[in-house]
Amino acid sequence: MNIFEVLIVQPLFNLLMVFYNVIPGGDFGVSIIVFTILLRIVMYPLVKKQLHQTKLMRKLQPELEKIKKQYKGNRQMQGLMMMELYKKHGVSPFRSLGILLVQLPIFIALYLVIQVFVHRAEFAKYTYDFLEKIPSINSIVENPDKFNETFLGFINLTSNAFNTSSTSMTIAVFILAAAAAIGQYFQSKQTLPQDPSKRRRLRDILNDAANGKEADQSEVNAAIMGKMIVVLPFMMFFIILSLPAAIGLYYATMTFVAIIQQHHILKQDEEELEDIAERVAAKHRAEERAKNAKTATVTRVVAKTSHKPSTKKNKRSKGGKK
After folding, report:
1. What is the pTM of this model?
2. What stretches of 143-196 adopt beta strand conformation (E)?
């Protein structure tokens, strides 16, 4: 096995194997749902930080608009002042990538794990030795055909919508793919940085640009994001149809749990957000004071050093007069 399989694929395989053997009835679909919910719970602190960033960005919109008007025509100064504003309030525009960086390897690993469950010949290769000592797990490792890959007794989670002859199976996969796509749409809509009624259409921005008017990059980004939250769910729908149904179940569960988490966090008291912003701002002010104090100290030392030679010169002049 390569390092990715050892660090991510194998642990995920064994975790699902444990859930499968612990859950009554040995339902592989329920195992995936439990795993997904636990994963989102573990990711909660990271999700909370990301959404605090989203809320801060929303609160900073008036300040950002002021900067755009004040430094209109000077893109470089606009960028510098915006970054200074972000730093002052502890906003990191790239922090939201953390969620993606965590989920992407798991998504890939889950696909590889499903392939192990499809072929089954490698159960012994991926199962940890200490887990093989458990009778129920050892029974599956020695007799892979005993593994039940269905969800609710009829949805084969190792098949996709195009490689099954069962009509009910095809309909079930379509439902999973649709649920995942709808969930993604609402999850993305929750975190849009501004009110859709205030967001300009991409068509209008491009028309203005064609007429010689300089486009505002933030408006362009907001318009593109508004389009993407509609386009991406459609893309995800067709992608999931071509993947094993287990991926669709995982993604649908992930998005709906994410919607619940985001709703809870975004509706929390604004006081918590204000406290976080104030702590960051106080830290920033303390750093500025320390920096200014250091600069002042260096200035005083330089001033004293430059004063001494003139004193010696005066003493020599007085000595000459004597």
Report:
1. 0.67
2. 150-151, 155-156
